[in-house]
Design goal:
By secondary structure, this protein is mainly alpha-helical. The chain contains 15 helices and three strands. The chain is globular. It holds the Pfam family PCI.
Length: 405
């Protein structure tokens, strides 16, 4: 039957067997040619392989990844320099894994977002800086989503890829065990409790955090609301997290007074713009306002908007402590610092966009991209804390606290 066909009537793809398995055959041929091509080299450029095989670079990279995962190639892909490095990894290092592939996809996503990210209302120091931050935010959101769908133990071990010291259970410290300011019987220091509290890593981070939030919010009444609200949150959840049990002088002097005062004076020193959150109708102006501005729902809606901002702010702060507890991250670990710095970078354009949204008098207005990303990250972090915290808090809420609520 094969001889009855003429070469002029049909090529080899007319045969059913070849037509059904042509893709597999081509892939096998490409694989054999690729292995033969890279065999003499320890380092070879992916564009060179693409040119020699007459195959797109994306297909070459996918083929290399499959060969590495199947242990046909002992090496890894350098995405920055577009290289395949073979047989030069140290002993004991695992072969190319799914985590490496996921990391490669994250880098590709970051480069794409960084080049195509939307501009924000901020123009200083340069719009490219905020596009860079936007790319970091998207990558962080993708990483959180990946972590959300893992098991708690797997997520804790996954944190070792970020830092080798993670993945170990941590003891929790209570800051309210002894609240005496002056201890005359102590031979080393009569103000030992105050000294240990002032120079604790979490207290220092707390002070700088409130100082940074004062620069972001730039409105003293709202800062008082946030500060008192966070102290109430600590009071509410201290039966779940021991480090929420603080002394009264820690709450009042360090948190409420010192941090807000330092932050607001920093804003005034640099002559920064303060944000008005009370609404246009209540801002002083020598020019008379249109009567249409006195809409009955203007006050309540503005109250809901600002209340939503406070809720998100407090949730982000609580997420820091619950994520640290659930994922076994010590306070001095760089991962905690990196997250706080990233959140501070996110909050700068987010607060500015949200304030511009509230002050905008256009009939049709929309919230900026950073606002939506910040809300999404806050929700995913909260979901991680809820999912991984199941069964970790054996103490029930005190009855007096239930009665107050």
């Amino acid at each position: 039957m094969l001889k009855s066909r003429s070469s002029s009537d049909c090529d080899f793809r007319c045969y059913p067997f070849i037509r059904n398995y042509i893709e597999d055959l081509l892939k096998n041929v490409r694989t054999q040619v690729l292995l033969k091509l890279i065999k003499p080299y320890t380092r070879i450029r992916i564009p060179f392989i693409s040119k020699e095989l007459n195959v797109p670079e994306k297909d070459v990279e996918q083929l290399l990844v499959s060969l590495i995962l199947d242990n046909h190639i002992d090496g890894h892909i350098d995405q920055v320099n577009r290289l395949l490095e073979c047989g030069n990894r140290s002993k004991g290092m695992k072969k190319y894994t799914a985590i490496d592939k996921w990391n490669t996809q994250l880098r590709s996503l970051y480069q794409t977002v960084n080049n195509r990210a939307p501009s924000t209302v901020l123009i200083r120091p340069h719009p490219a800086i905020w596009r860079l931050v936007h790319g970091m935010v998207v990558v962080y959101l993708v990483a959180l989503t990946f972590l959300l769908f893992q098991k708690r133990d797997d997520a804790r071990q996954f944190m070792k890829f970020l830092h080798p010291d993670l993945g170990v259970e941590l003891p929790e410290r209570s800051y309210g065990a002894d609240c005496h300011i002056y201890i005359p019987e102590n031979p080393t220091s009569r103000f030992k409790n105050v000294y240990e509290t002032l120079f604790d890593e979490f207290v220092v981070a707390h002070i700088f955090g409130w100082w940074g939030k004062a620069i972001l919010i730039r409105n003293q009444p709202l800062l008082w609301v946030l500060s008192i609200g966070f102290e109430l949150m600590e009071f509410t959840f201290q039966h779940m997290l021991p480090n929420f049990n603080e002394c009264w002088w820690d709450n009042i002097i360090l948190d409420i007074l010192t941090c807000i005062w330092a932050g607001m004076h920093t804003v005034r020193y640099f002559d920064g713009k303060t944000y008005e959150w009370v609404g246009i109708s209540r801002q002083p102006n020598i020019i008379g306002k249109d009567k249409d501005e006195w809409h009955p729902l203007l006050g309540p809606m503005r109250f809901v908007h600002v209340l939503s901002l406070c809720i998100v702010f407090l949730t982000v702060e609580l997420n820091t402590f619950f994520l640290k507890f659930c994922l076994w991250i010590p306070p001095r670990n760089p991962v905690v610092v990196y997250r706080l710095i990233l959140w501070w970078l996110i909050a700068i354009p987010t607060i500015r966009e949200y304030n511009s949204y509230l002050q905008d008098r256009k009939p049709v207005k929309k919230v900026g991209a950073f606002c939506w990303l910040s809300l999404a990250i806050c929700i995913v972090e909260l979901l991680i804390g809820i999912k991984f915290g199941h069964g970790l808090y054996p103490k029930a809420m005190p009855q007096w606290l239930v009665a107050v609520q």
